[in-house]
Amino acid sequence: MARKSTDTKEKLLDAFETLLERHGTSGATLDAVAAEAGVSKGGLLYHFGSKAELVKGSLDRLRVLVSEDIKEMKAAEAGPHIFYLETSAEIGTPLDRSLVAASRLSHEYDEARETLREIRNAWLEVINDHLGDIHLAHTIQLIGDGLYLKESVGLSAEEAVEHVKNVLARLGL
Amino acid sequence: MARKSTDTKEKLLDAFETLLERHGTSGATLDAVAAEAGVSKGGLLYHFGSKAELVKGSLDRLRVLVSEDIKEMKAAEAGPHIFYLETSAEIGTPLDRSLVAASRLSHEYDEARETLREIRNAWLEVINDHLGDIHLAHTIQLIGDGLYLKESVGLSAEEAVEHVKNVLARLGL
DNA sequence: TAAACTATACCGTCCAGACGGTATAGTTGA
DNA sequence: TCAACTATACCGTCTGGACGGTATAGTTTA
């Protein structure tokens, strides 16, 4: 039936990220990704000629999602820093899933590490531009990282956000 | 030469953790661990009968290191929370190395995830007991997590600690 | 002598990747 | 308009290598 190429590519990337999240890099084999996406292995390799291309495809999509997120951040009513903390605690969004996948990959692929570094810097810049306080900006980013890490260890980050907001209030935020 | 069994075991665990940190779980094969430790594969399997036992050995050692760390935390002059933040930014210590290894393993081994959860809870308890402020305790732990994550992505966490201390000062800490 | 190894040879399984083939939608030119 | 051709989107099979684990025979040192 030859569905649109982009649809299948997205499905393959979704499958790749799902498997990375569930079982780590060792679980995200080409066979498993193809099966998860409901595509044959040959089909997968038609779209992504190698595992490296699959990794690259995932990171490319992450960069797009982040640039969209940064637009939202800048436009957020409560300010970019609050938006940042709240979205750090969100799980299951396309951005979150893509970010988790990249962090799994970062242990074995330098390109993933580099991408995560760039993303971190972009976020920090937005927060610092808004607050005009580099100490606070760094601290908020660390808290966001912490929320993300907590979630990735399988603990709820939602209640933690409330604790953070309580503390931020004391700082006049 | 038949050196002490415990020495070789430690060397094997060191090698395992080194490879986990450098190349992730996929790089820490039994062959590679044995080679890194300067031991034959047979020698490795003499001490750790399977890869699962190697994982368990690493987590057991981590738990010991953490219990020692908690003693130091409680006795720290500047308070457990400052000790916690400063040691979160330290890299290359046995505890740090063991912790990085466990976090690599946590993506593929439930036991590692569970161990990390327990450790997090233990640290939080100490900080909360000292500060008597659950909001602050959670926030400090998140910052510590952030420092750890930042370091594990290959960025220096040392300067970040200074930013955090600046902010903590505003909170009367 | 027994514990602590080394060295080597395997085995079954899984994985990345290559390859040949198929189906179909669109394009071109006589 | 229709046959010839091209591009896209797959499927199924195979191979070479790596990995976890087993087995076994010999070696070193307290």
Account of the 3D structure:
2 copies of one chain form a homodimer. Chain A folds into 2 domains: 1-49, Homeodomain-like (Arc Repressor Mutant, subunit A); 58-170. The first copy, chain A, is 77% helix and 0% strand. Chain A has helices at residues 5-23, 30-37, 41-47, 51-75, 80-88, 94-105, 110-131, 134-152, 158-170. The structure holds a DNA duplex (30 and 30 nucleotides).
Structural descriptors:
homodimer, 173 residues, mainly alpha, Arc Repressor Mutant, subunit A, 2 domains, 0% strand, elongated, DNA-binding
Main pleated-sheet profile of chain A: none
Overall number of domains of chain A: 2
Chain-averaged pLDDT of chain A: 93
**Helix amount of chain A, in percent?**
over 70%
- Name the quaternary structure: homodimer
> In what range is the share of β-strand residues of chain A?
under 5%
**What Rg of chain A do the Cα atoms give?**
18 Å
Cα distance, first to last residue of chain A?
Answer: 55 Å
**What sort of overall outline of chain A do the alpha carbons produce when their principal axes are compared?**
elongated
The number of distinct helices of chain A, counting runs of at least 4 residues, comes to 9
Show unreliable segments of chain A: none
- In total, how many beta strands of chain A? 0
Largest interface (CB within 8 Å) is between: A-B, 38 and 38 residues
**What is the structural class of chain A?**
mainly alpha
Task: Report the order of strands and helices of chain A.
Answer: HHHHHHHHH
